[in-house]
Amino acid sequence: MAGLDSELEDLYRRRQGAFQVMLASITGGVESARDVVQEAFVQALRDQDGFRGEGSLEGWVWRIAFRVAIGSKGSRELTVDEMPEVGLVDESRDPTLALAVRGLPPQRRMAIFLRYFADLSYAEIGEVLGVAEGTVAATLSQAHRQLGAALSANEVVA
Amino acid sequence: MTTHEDSHFAARFAALAPQPLPGDWDDVLGRAGVDRGDRRFAGFRMRRRRRLLVVLAAVGLVSVVTASALAVRAFVLDRGQRYPDVTLPAWSPDGQRIAFLAWRPTGRSRFELRVVNADGSGQRGRVVARKAGSFAWSPDGRKLAFEGPSTLDIYVVNADGSGQRRLTRDAAPSTSPVWSPDGRRIAYVHSGGPGAGIYVVGADGSGRRMLARRGDQPAWSPDGRKLAFVSDRRKPRTSDVYVVNADGSGLRRLAQSGQRPVWSPDGRKIAFVSGGSPSPVLTPNQDVFNVFTMNADGSGKRKLARGFGPVWSPDGRKIAFVRQRAGSMDVGVTNADGSGQRTLTRVRAVDFIPQPAWSPDGQRILFVSDREGSEAVYVMNADGSGQRRLTSPAPPAIPFRVRCGSSHRNQDDPIVSPGQPGSSHDHTFFGNRSTDAFSTLASLRAGGPTTCNDPADASAYWVPTLYVAGRAVEPLALIATYSRRTTGPVEPFPAGLKVIAGNAHAPRAQSTAVTSWSCAVPRAARSSTIPSCPGTWRGGLTRNGGLRLHVAFPDCWTGEQLDSADHKSHMAYSSRGACPRSHPVAVPALSLVVHYPVSGRRDAELASGGQFSGHADFFNAWNRAALASWVKRYLNRTLE
Q1: In which band, very low, low, confident or very high, does the pLDDT at B309 lie, cut at 50, 70 and 90?
Q2: What is the pTM assigned to this prediction?
């Protein structure tokens, strides 16, 4: 193997923590998330032809990682409807926020987690989800509003 | 593109995000089957990983095809992984002794290879190797081959622990030794790199050669002419059963999707296991496995029973195995044709594996049980009667951890300066969100949600604030580890205990056993001064690297005062596993690790002054029942 090896290695070294944090919200724990991340990079190493250079390398690996996380076979990319459900967090650490997050519809929740757990830019989120950057901005803006409302409601009571 | 909402939510989500685990690129390469070129480095990393896998394989008696990284996960209790207290009990060929691996959770945790008498005398047994993985008796019962101790290589040692010899010296791991029936050769697994495969070496270390590439779990035929093994050579992440002649010729696949082949005593049949989930994580207490038999040529496959870990009776008429039922495991037995299945034990194991082993005379079966409190090796008659314990149940204390985010900062100190707000150097608090100069046990208990991941821990933990270039650093997290350093059981911390560890006024380096700095990297050295650490941060999360402050609290208490004038002398450190007479009550050894998202520089210093003044305060406000429960389940896993 040659080609993308060093780019993938660099990506892994820089970003495997963020991959773990994001995927832990799907798998329920960092241990299983680390396993998924490693497997995603293994598949990326093996299937380098699958990266057609149309988007960023990282976006491609994210899509592989989601596929691995839900145990999908083969190398077909997931459709929007097949995206995994995110949101498994340790609620005790910020119960109000956890509750507010749970109230988000799946796509907004996915966007929010990609923004803050995966630490992706709006453009990168758009690439991972296969939507335009403007759509990401709109989704996040709605999510922010909904979260803000839920948080202020809960925190006033608390 | 960012918005102002972004920064607000980013901070809150950072608090919600779990701490990622370190991840090695070499592990990815290992899984992908790529040789890194830099063999020494890769081998080193591979070793650590393989060690874990071997340990876990030993737990599961299920396959670990290392080359393809079909990992077996340890059982997960409520928090963290646990290792079995005892595992892999094996009779000596004369049936007089039993070797097994005993987990040593204290210090540098490891498995010890021990040998005990099969008649139940000498239950503690003799330590044959201080650090070992899987092992095998020599056919004459005089030696044991094992993997270890400090590197994953094959060693041979006399059964009394003398004469240890290393047979292999490889960059990549060599594991899972098995003796040939004539005792002259040892087959083993070599993993990692292009040389991965099943090897055979003379028992004196001579004449090493590869028999088959990419393999695991070798098993000699009783006549010593063949080896059965598993391999993923057909397709990555699969495990098929193969057989090969002992000279490396005549390789053929016997079964697709099988693991752990075991020859019948007459060499005419092979038992094996199939099943488990296709995911890399196998959980023997959840995944369904089945025991199969087939003829030695691969014909006549037959499913016998639900379970795994088959062992033939010496007359070849029965098979004992780990029977899976309703999420728990017991020792089952079946006739070799699948008839007459029975459960012999009532272990109902969920977090360890009973692991049957048949005595050479066929009269008795070893197994692992925890019915007296912690796991030990037991023996019973082959019909399940007369069960008794053979090994003293180890009292392994398993540390438990609490992770707490930093809650707030102020210049208060409810231990040193109660009732005097603003009179202290700047403190960074963790756990209880309400801690201030007026905190009492009652106020802490009423203090609302804790920043710790265990809601029962309302304790206040604090350290002097770290400054870099004059700016306060907000830590990523505090990890509080509760372990046991004394040989006897410990009492939970008394409610309201206040204690300080380390010297806030230290003019020079303190003992690194009490407080030290390190980088958040594998195998980091501890130092008295702040090291320079690697690390990159984005969005407030650490990846690899960063700085850590370590503080270890004393683990012995007078049993009387909850505090003392200097906030220290009511507590003392244990020595050689015992508490001093002045402080007779053993309590958990609490050690704190504060993780900072900084690389550590010369201009870093603590609010208490310089880099040597590391210390920490603990004000116990745990929910009493919860702490008592953790202490009992994790730290006092004793018989009494």
Answers
A1: confident
A2: 0.52
Give the pLDDT score at B80: 30
C-alpha dihedral (B25, B30, B34, B38), degrees to nearest 10: 60
Contact assignment for A97 to B16 by CB distance below 8 Å = yes
Q: Which of B316, B289, B290 is nearest to B302 (CA)?
A: B290
What gap in Å lies between CA B238 and CA B264, rounded to an integer? 24
Q: Determine, for residues B15 and A94 on separate chains, whether the beta-carbon distance falls below 8 Å.
A: yes
Q: How far apart are CA B394 and CA B638, in angstroms?
A: 7
- Give the nearest chain B residue to A122 (CA atoms): B1
Q: Which two tokens stand for residue B115?
A: 């040998």
Which of B:478-507 have CB within 8 Å of A?
none
Contact at CB, B541 and A21, closer than 8 angstroms: yes
B25 touches chain A (CB under 8 A): yes
C-alpha A128/C-alpha B209 separation (Å) is 49
B25 within 8 A of B45, measured Cβ to Cβ? no
Query: What is the maximum span of chain B, computed from C-alpha positions, in angstroms?
Result: 83
* pLDDT interval class at B589 (50, 70, 90): very high
Phi, psi of B555 (to 5 degrees): -120, 20
Residue B285, pLDDT > 80, answer no
pLDDT above 70 covers a percentage of chain B that reads 82
| Chain A residue with minimum CA distance to B32 | A42
pLDDT at B608: 92
Q: Share the mean pLDDT of chain B.
A: 82
Say yes or no for a CB contact (<8 Å) between B405 and A93: yes
With contact defined as beta carbons under 8 Å apart, do B196 and B172 qualify?
yes
Give the strand pairing for B471-472 and B388-389.
unpaired
- List A residues 80-99 in contact with B (Cβ-Cβ < 8 A): 89-90, 92-95, 97-98
The predicted pLDDT at position A151 comes to 82
Give the full edge-to-edge strand order of the sheet including B165-166: B135-137, B143-147, B154-158, B165-166
Spatial distance between the Cα atoms of B54 and B37, rounded to a whole number of angstroms = 24
CA B83 – CA B338 distance, rounded (Å): 32
Residue A52's contacts (CB-CB under 8 Å, 6 or more residues apart) are none
Determine the pLDDT at residue B300: 95
d(CA A40, CA A65): 5
What integer pLDDT is reported at residue B28 of this predicted model? 79
d(Cα B219, Cα B82) in Å, to the nearest integer? 28
Interatomic CA distance for residues B225 and B463, integer angstroms: 65
Searching chain A, which residue's CA lies closest to the CA of residue B79?
A29
In whole angstroms, what is the distance from residue B275 CA to residue B258 CA?
A: 8
User: pLDDT (tens digit, 9 = 90+) per residue, B311-326?
Assistant: 999 999 999 999 988 7
Averaged pLDDT score across all residues of chain A: 83
pLDDT above 80: residue B471: yes
B620 and B495 in contact (C-beta within 8 Å)?
yes
**DSSP secondary structure of B192-203:** SSTT-EEEEEET
Angstroms from B239 CA to nearest CA on chain A: 18
Tell me if B272 sits within 8 A of B261, measured CB to CB: yes
Question: Inter-chain contact A18–B20, Cβ cutoff 8 Å?
Answer: yes
| Residue that has been written with the tokens 């041979």 in this structure | B156
- CA–CA distance, B302 with B605 (Å, rounded to integer): 69
Instruction: Out of B21, B25, B451, name the one closest to residue A9 (CB).
Output: B25
**Is ipTM strictly over 0.90?**
no
Q: Does residue B31 sit at the A interface (CB-CB below 8 Å)?
A: yes
Helix (H) or strand (E) holding A102: helix A95-102
Q: Which of B453, B536, B544 sits opposite A92 (nearest CB)?
A: B453
pLDDT of residue A61: 93
State how far the Cα of B208 lies from the Cα of B347, in Å rounded to an integer: 42
The whole-angstrom distance between A112's CA and the closest CA on chain B is: 9
Q: Which residues contact B339 (CB under 8 A, 6 or more apart)?
A: none
